[in-house]
Amino acid sequence: MAAKKHKKKSTLEEKDKEQTHELEKANEKLQLEMNQHERVEETLAHKENLLQMIISATGEAMILIGNDGLITLFNPAAEEMFGFKKEDMLGQPLDHLMPEQYRHHHSQYVQSYFATGKPDGIIGNTVELPALRSDGHIFPMEMSLSAGSLGDKQFVIAVARDITERKQTEICQDELLKKVDNINKELKDFVSIVSHDLKAPLRGIKTLANWILSDCSDRLDDQAKEHINLLLERVERMYNLIEGALQYSRAGQAEEKQAHVDLNNFVPEIINMVAPPENITVTIENELPVIDCEETHIMQLLQNLLSNAIKYMDKPQGWIKVGCVEQDGFWKFSVADNGPGIEEKHFERIFKIFQALPTSPDFEGTGIGLTVAKKIVELYEGRIWIESKVGEGSTFFFTLPKQKTEAKK
C-alpha cells in the first residue's frame, strides 16, 4: 500500500515539474516577444525623432502631417516663410496655410491618402498654388507632398517653396519676349521701307546716268565718261548692299513647312542655279544625306557658299567640291575650292555683315552672303567655319544636327 502511494506521489511531482517547465518556457517566450516589441517601439521612436530632427534642421520649409490630417511638425524655415509660429500651427490642418477657395480642394488629396493608404492626385507630385501668410498676404507657392509611414503610423511630408521671384522673372521674360517680337517686326518693316525708299532714287540716278551716256556721248570727253561709269558702278554697289541687308533681315523669317530634302537631287539643282562658268568644275564628292529642313534655308546656304567660291576664283581652271560626312551626331558639310584662299586673321571677320575682303580685282562683294549662311546654320543649332591657305584655296565647313534639323523660330 505504501509503495503504491509513493509511486502516485512521484507521478504528480513529475507532472508538476513538466507544467512548471512549460510555464517557464511560455514566460521566456512572452518576455522575448515583449523585449522585441520594446526594441521595435524604441526603433520607431528613434526613427521618428531622427525624422523630426532632419525636418527641423533643413533649410527648406517642411511640414509633417499626421494620420489625423493635422500638422505635427512645423520647422523653422516654414515659420519664416508663412509667418506663423510653430505653436500656433501644431494641431492645425494644412489648409490653414492656403486661401479659403483652395482649402477644400487640397485637403481632399491628403484625406484620400489617409483613408486608402494610397498616394493619389497631388501626393508624389509638385504643384503650384497660392499660399497664405500670417499677415493675410497671398503669394505663389510650389509644394510637393510625399507619403510615408513608421510602423502603423502614416504621415505626409509637405515641402513648400516661395516662388514669387521665379514668377516675377517669368513675367519679365514674357514681357521681354513680346518687346523683342515687336522690335523684330518693326525692324523688318523698317528694312523693307528703307530698302524700297532707297532703291527708288538709285534707279532714278542709274537711268539718268545711262541717258547722259547715251544722248550726250558726243559732248563728253573720256574723263567725263569714266566718271559716269564709276557713278554707275557705285550705284550698282549701293543697290546690292541694300538688297543684301534686306536678304539678311529675311533669313530664317519666312514661314515654310519642313520637308524631307534629298540633297543628292537638290544640290545639283543649286549648282545649275548658280551657273558656274566653263572654266570652273563643281563636283559632289560622296553621297549626300536626306535631311528635314526648310528648302529655302538650305538653298540660300549652299547658294551663297557656291556663289562666293565662283565669284572669287582666281585660277584659269577652278574646281569646287561639295562633300558631307557623319560626325558625332551631326552632318558635317564641306564646300572646298582652289581659289585665292584667305589669311587666318580674317577667318572671323568674313562672317560679319558688310565685311567682304577685296580678294578679287574683278568682283567687289557686299559682305552679306557668308553672314546669311552663318545665320541660317545657327538657326538649326549648327556651326560654320573656314580652313584656308593663301594661294591654295579654302574649305567652308558647316554642321547640322542629324536628329534635330528643325530651325528655331
Largest sheet: 5 strands, antiparallel
Instruction: Specify the helix fraction band.
Output: 40-55%
Tell me the CATH architecture of the largest domain.
2-Layer Sandwich
Q: What global shape is seen? A: elongated
Q: Work out the helix count.
A: 9
The residue-averaged pLDDT reads 78
Per CATH, the class of the largest domain reads Alpha Beta
Structural class: alpha+beta
Range of strand content: 15-25%
Distance between the termini: 117 Å
Q: CATH homologous superfamily of the largest domain? A: Histidine kinase-like ATPase, C-terminal domain
Q: What is the string of SSEs from the N terminus onward? A: HEEHHHEEEHHEHEEHEEHEE
Query: Which quaternary structure do these chains form?
Result: single chain
Q: How many beta-strand runs? A: 12
| Order of strands, widest sheet | 2-1-5-4-3
Residue ranges: pLDDT <50 for 5 or more in a row?
none
The number of distinct structural domains comes to 3
CATH topology of the largest domain: Heat Shock Protein 90
Q: What is the rounded Rg?
A: 42 Å
